[in-house]
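User: hey, got a sec? need Acetoin dehydrogenase folded
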Amino acid sequence: MTKILTALTMPKFGLAMTEGKLASWTLSPGDTVREGDEVADIETSKITSGYESPASGILRKQVAQAGETLPVGALLGVVADAEASDEEIDAFIASFKADTDEEGGEEAEAANAEPRVITVGEHSLNVRDVGRGDGAPVLLIHGFGGDLSNWMLNQDVLARHQRVIAFDLPGHGASSKDVGDGSVTVLAEAAYELLKALDIPKAHILGHSLGGAIALALLRDYPDAVLTLTLVAPAGMEREVNAESLREMVEADRTRDMQKALQVLVHDKSLVGRRMADNVLRVRRLDGAREALRTIEAACFANGQQSIDLRPVLDAARIPVTLFWGEADEVLPVAGAKNAPDHVVKHLLPQVGHMPQLEKTVEFNRLVEAFLEKAQVTA
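Assistant: Yep! Here you go:
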C-alpha cells in the first residue's frame, strides 16, 4: 500500500516575500487535518495569515517551532497517513532537508549572479546568465512592460540543472530603447541575436504573454535555434486582449494608479504592493521607455485587439510544446488555449491570473523542469 507523506512548507504570500515567521501552530501532532484546514499562522513584514494544509491526513510532525523565521519553501511539518511509521516520517524529513541543502547551495550561487549589459547587434541588452550543465540552455522571454525580474522565482530554480538566460527585451528594463517598428519580428530577431552573441546554437525557449508570441516568432523565423517551446499565457492565439489594462501599465504615473494596473496581472491582488509599483514607475520614467512601449503597443495591440496571429506557427510545430494559462487571466483570456492544437501539452490553472510563473511558482517550476527533462531524454 502506498503511503502518502506531504511536506508543509513556508508559503509565499507576496511576490517579494523571501521569508516568514511561524507565529503559531493551530493544530498539534496527532490531530486529524483535512485539505484546506488552517494548521499554522504565518507572519510577514506586511500581514499575518493562516496557512492551509495542502493535503488531508494526520499532522505527524512539527519540524519548525513557533517563533522561528524561515525562508520560503522551508519545511514546517509533515502530514501523513496513519499507516506511515515514525521511521518513514524521519527518513522523509532527512531526505527533504538534504535536497534543500543541495538546492540551496546551487540557488545561492545563482542568486549572486548580477545582470550585465552586452551589445547585441544594434541593441544593448540587460542579461542575467546563470546555471550550468551539459544540456541545451533555456532562454526566458518576459512579456509586454515587464523585465527579467518577471522570472525572479523561476530562473534560479531551473538553473539547478542547466544554464538559464533571462534578459530585458529592447524597450524594457535596463536594455536600450530602440524597438524599430515594435513588431514581434523585430523583438524575435533581438532574441536570436542574443543567442548568437552567447554562442548558443539551440535553446529551449520559455515565453510569457508577448514573450510567448516572440517565442513563436523565433520558431517561425529561426526554427533551427528552437528545441522546445514553453508558452505562458501567450499572445498571438486570438484577437481579444484587455487593451485598457496594457495602456494603463504604460501610461500610469502615480504609485496608486500603477499598483491598480499591475493588480490586473494576478488573481490574488494582495501579491502586488506599492514597492512593486514604485519599481515599475522608476523604469517607466527612463528616457524613451514609455515611447518604446507605445510603439510595441501600436504594432502588437492596435485598435484594442491583438494584431498578431501565430496560431499557424503552433499548428505546424514539430517540436515539444507545453502551455500554461491561468483560468482567471484578465489580460489575455484563457479561451486562447482552446486554439492550441492537440499536440500541445496544456496546463490550465484555476484561480490563477496572467502570471502563473509567479502565482503558482512551485507547481510551475516542477512542471517546467519535468518537461525539459523529458525533452532532454528524448532528444
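Quick note: The mean pLDDT is 91. Let me know if you need anything else on Acetoin dehydrogenase.
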